[in-house]
Design the sequence.
């Protein structure tokens, strides 16, 4: 789950990472008031969950409160990467002498957290690593012991930083690493970490991602930041259709059915969770099909849940047929999914034989499932037909009916 | 032969009285696995399909040698269950549970390394050496498992539990069969990557080829490519790459927790390029896999 | 009655409070509930959730509970003795 910059900064403030003075504003008038309070030149930053704000015109500077008000109106009306800003972050603009980079993430191969530090901040760290590898240093740290300052000290020192700067940076990097561990973050990045004219350091911009799985255990902190329990935070805000999918999944605790992502095609998909769904989605596209959605169903959901998901997908404008496709299942039951899908189609007022382009789920309880499909005249296939071939048939049928 | 598990492997199931674990126990027993005990705190003295349930791991390991443990406990209890198994000398952990924060996964893996133990998962369906034993829910009911898996020369590793069975089923239908198939887990950080399991397959005379199922996200495919190139592996490798559609959708998570495109290196297209460069055959379709394996086996012979 | 499953409960069995309690307990998908008078009642909206585990059939006396598969020409799960 990605944090807005203003939330990320509040989180870092809890670990005493130094930040510029400022606050958030939701209107141009608010912005003017804040700029007045801060005094002097300010920077205004659009709060969206995406990068590239500067390029898009989402970050602007103002020398007076009146200018701040005018610029705020422009930024608040500006869509960036399909998102309208949540609010503006208004901060004092300070002259920066030098920019550093500090980040913490997991290294999936070492299976340990890693701190990355660079004395070339302000640009994409991957680019620095490629172009100027001698300006990037990394160190792994143990998850079994408390984070030690010396790890950060060695790291910063390895790029030639000494004196008071070494001491100050060691403290900030260590605090960043501790925040990373404490809040189950998957990325904690300060870029740029600016050194001001007076020699002090501040986190000018930061990017923080929290593990979705850990949201519940940090509920108290998230509430303080104003992030509600059911607010999904993917790379883009969810559509209404996607929110309704999440509601379907919450019908009961059995299995998963929902977690949909919306696309604009005409073939509705009821597909299994995990790798099978990726394989099927690729196959549909390869055969020229246009999926209306991605979804996940698995872990043996209730008949009701599978039926509600089917109804949701059929309710989407432009959906002509649905394809029910999964890999060979071992836990999810073929007959339960068959009941759910057929029920959903009937409750939507359609004929299953007509609406279900194809049903390909081999595996547990398949004999019982196939009996249901035969009774309702639905075309189905067993493990002798590949996932890709079943997808091809579904696409063909959808095209034929248009 | 096979790797990790065979007919003599003994294991316990932690969290054995849970709804899914009860099923898994029955499926393993029906397949012929040696499930020697189960652990659920507060339920000691009961049994699940004849498997005695204890309150602690120690009550079992103090009586007999135990090779492995399947962890099927809720996410909040995984770290504790793993440490309990490791401290009692168990050297092979299969973590079935999903949705464990990666900080805790990293702790378990770091401690397991200190103890010289191997971890498969989390978020996996386990290991099967067809005709010998299975450790975990892989393949489902014994009858279904026998349909999809037969003994043979192919080692299978997959980031998707369901696709482990789908791919093995295709190999079996083509008359090939599997030496050992491993659902390695769908999380960003897992106990054993493809490259880390390769040396075990290399050392197994029965394994003649490898098939992997892979997805966008993470550096594990690049690590395998590097391993194959650097070590001049004797085993031909065939890969299937799912989730090609995701390349155009950075930051969106599909399928597994670890399946998300975060940088240039972890797109499907880039992975296919790296694998191909290393001499790994990348299959367009699942149904092409058996043919490619046979071709590659022909080259070796 | 569901679309796929119908559960028939013998009125004599339904009237027994101890059996009603047992049926409500064994069914993993809550097809049975104990009504205010202590007797058992089938919950129609849950019938289609039946997983064919036969635990209710085993818990009741012979011919007490019958699970009918409406999609399979009315074939059923029941205990005759």
Sequence:
């Amino acid at each position: 789950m990605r944090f807005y910059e203003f939330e990320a900064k509040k989180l870092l403030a809890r670990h005493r990472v130094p930040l510029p003075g400022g606050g958030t504003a939701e209107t141009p008038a608010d912005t003017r008031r804040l700029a007045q309070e801060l005094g002097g030149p300010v920077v205004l930053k659009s709060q969206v969950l995406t990068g590239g704000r500067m390029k898009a015109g989402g970050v602007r500077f103002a020398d007076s409160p009146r200018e701040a008000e005018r610029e705020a109106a422009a930024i608040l009306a500006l869509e960036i990467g399909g998102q309208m800003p949540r609010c503006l972050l208004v901060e004092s603009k300070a002259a920066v002498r030098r920019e550093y980079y500090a980040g913490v993430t997991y290294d999936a191969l070492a299976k340990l957290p890693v701190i990355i530090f660079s004395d070339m901040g302000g640009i994409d760290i991957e680019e620095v690593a490629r172009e100027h590898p001698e300006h990037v240093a990394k160190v792994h740290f143990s998850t079994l012991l408390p984070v030690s300052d010396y790890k950060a000290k060695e790291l910063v020192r390895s790029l030639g930083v000494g004196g008071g700067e070494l001491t100050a940076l060691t403290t900030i990097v260590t605090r960043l690493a501790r925040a990373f561990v404490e809040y189950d973050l998957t990325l904690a990045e300060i870029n740029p970490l600016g050194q001001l004219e007076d020699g002090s350091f501040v986190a000018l911009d930061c990017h923080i991602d929290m593990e979705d799985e850990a949201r519940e255990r940090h509920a108290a902190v998230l509430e303080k930041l104003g992030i509600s329990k059911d607010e999904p935070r993917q790379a883009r805000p969810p559509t209404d259709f996607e929110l309704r999918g999440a509601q379907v999944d919450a019908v009961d605790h059995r299995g998963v059915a929902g977690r949909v992502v919306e696309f604009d095609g005409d073939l509705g998909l009821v597909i299994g969770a995990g790798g099978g769904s990726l394989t099927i989605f690729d196959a549909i596209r390869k055969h020229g099909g246009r999926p209306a959605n991605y979804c996940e169903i698995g872990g043996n959901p209730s008949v009701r849940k599978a039926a509600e998901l089917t109804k949701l997908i059929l309710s989407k404008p432009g959906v002509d047929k649905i394809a029910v496709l999964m890999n060979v299942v071992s836990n999810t039951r073929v007959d339960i999914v068959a009941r759910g899908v057929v029920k959903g189609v009937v409750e939507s007022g359609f004929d299953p034989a007509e609406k279900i382009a194809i049903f390909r789920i081999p595996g547990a309880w398949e004999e019982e499932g196939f009996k249901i499909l035969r009774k309702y005249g639905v075309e189905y296939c067993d493990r002798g037909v590949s996932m890709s071939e079943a997808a091809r048939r579904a696409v063909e049928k959808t095209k034929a009916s248009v | 032969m096979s790797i990790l598990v065979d007919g003599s492997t003994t294991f316990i199931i932690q969290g054995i009285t849970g709804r899914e674990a009860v099923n898994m126990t029955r499926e393993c027993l029906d397949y012929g696995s040696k499930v020697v005990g189960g652990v659920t705190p507060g339920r000691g003295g009961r049994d699940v399909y004849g498997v005695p349930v204890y309150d602690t791991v120690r009550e079992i390991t103090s009586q007999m040698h135990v090779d492995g443990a399947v962890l099927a406990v809720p996410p909040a209890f995984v770290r504790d269950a793993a440490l309990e198994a490791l401290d009692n000398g168990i050297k092979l952990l299969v973590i079935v549970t999903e949705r464990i924060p990666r900080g805790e996964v990293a702790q378990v893996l770091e401690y397991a390394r200190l103890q010289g133990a191997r971890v498969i998962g989390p978020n996996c369906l386990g290991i099967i050496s067809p005709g010998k034993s299975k450790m975990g829910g892989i393949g489902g009911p014994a009858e279904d498992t026998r349909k999809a898996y037969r003994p043979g020369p192919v080692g299978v590793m997959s980031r998707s539990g369901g696709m482990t069975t789908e791919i093995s089923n295709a190999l079996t239908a083509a008359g090939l069969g599997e030496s050992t198939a491993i659902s390695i887990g769908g999380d960003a950080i897992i106990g054993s990557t493809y490259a880390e399991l390769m040396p075990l397959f290399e050392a197994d005379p029965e394994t003649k080829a490898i098939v992997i199922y892979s997805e966008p996200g993470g550096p594990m495919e690049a690590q395998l490519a590097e391993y194959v190139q650097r070590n001049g592996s004797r085993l031909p490798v065939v890969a299937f790459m799912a989730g090609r559609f995701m390349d155009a959708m950075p930051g969106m998570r599909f399928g597994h927790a670890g399946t998300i495109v975060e940088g240039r290196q972890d797109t499907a297209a880039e992975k296919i390029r790296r694998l191909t460069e290393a001499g790994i055959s990348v299959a367009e379709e699942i149904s092409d896999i058996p043919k490619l394996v046979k071709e590659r086996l022909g080259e070796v012979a | 009655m569901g679309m796929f499953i119908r559960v028939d409960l013998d009125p004599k069995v339904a009237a027994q409070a101890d059996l009603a309690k047992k049926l409500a307990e064994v069914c993993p998908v809550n097809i049975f509930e104990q009504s205010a008078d202590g007797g058992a009642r089938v919950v129609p909206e849950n019938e289609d959730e039946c997983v064919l585990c036969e635990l209710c059939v085993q818990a009741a006396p012979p011919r007490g509970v019958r699970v009918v598969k409406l999609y399979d020409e009315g074939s059923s799960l029941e205990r005759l003795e």
